């Protein structure tokens, strides 16, 4: 056995609540989102896990989630590395739009393709494949080495950046990964073998 990787999607954001495409825009957490982040910290603590380094995106909803988790663990001063490689998928021209308004403008089928295809980009934005192209190298070169040295690594990020990571860890196809949902504030705990393969996976649901 090697180390542990903990993935947490940020708590509910103000734009999640309003059904808006968020992407690289930077809304804060709702009251529910703050509580989801704190709850994630308590669940991690209940397992007896103690991260020795944290990674997050440069967006505030992931940063605040990380801060809440570390506070619940009594690790407020833990080294945290912020990098845009872990940012949410960039939705381009859809960013800031209500999803129902986008359907009215471009049609239900086209918006569904943009949201749920693996390699189709929305106007001016990224596909999930594009998101993975920046997440995977960052994981392999910067995060995974800490796990393989026996560390416990906390990653507070976003639905699509984490979806790309889970795709690689679980060996999912493009068709499989777009059907997978990652809930806000629910930790996913991986134990990795020394050869970087997955030894076990646990989702800390309510």
UniProtKB/TrEMBL annotation:
CDD domains the UniProt entry points to: HP_PGM_like (cd07067)
Keyword vocabulary terms for this entry: Gluconeogenesis, Glycolysis, Isomerase
Signal peptide stretch: none
Catalytic activity entry: (2R)-2-phosphoglycerate = (2R)-3-phosphoglycerate
GO molecular function annotation: phosphoglycerate mutase activity
SUPFAM superfamilies referenced in this protein's UniProt entry, alphabetically: Phosphoglycerate mutase-like
List of residues binding substrate: 9-16, 22-23, 61, 88-91, 99, 115-116, 159-160
Active site per the UniProt annotation: 10 (tele-phosphohistidine intermediate), 88 (proton donor/acceptor)
UniProt pathway annotation: Carbohydrate degradation; glycolysis; pyruvate from D-glyceraldehyde 3-phosphate: step 3/5
Gene3D superfamilies reported in the protein's UniProt record: Phosphoglycerate mutase-like
Organism superkingdom: Bacteria
EC annotation from Swiss-Prot or TrEMBL: 5.4.2.11
Annotated site, Transition state stabilizer, chain positions: 158
Family, per entry: Belongs to the phosphoglycerate mutase family. BPG-dependent PGAM subfamily.
Function as written in the Swiss-Prot or TrEMBL entry: Catalyzes the interconversion of 2-phosphoglycerate and 3-phosphoglycerate.
Subunit structure: Homodimer.
Protein name as it appears in the record: 2,3-bisphosphoglycerate-dependent phosphoglycerate mutase
UniProt organism field: Nitratireductor thuwali
Gene that produces this protein: gpmA_2
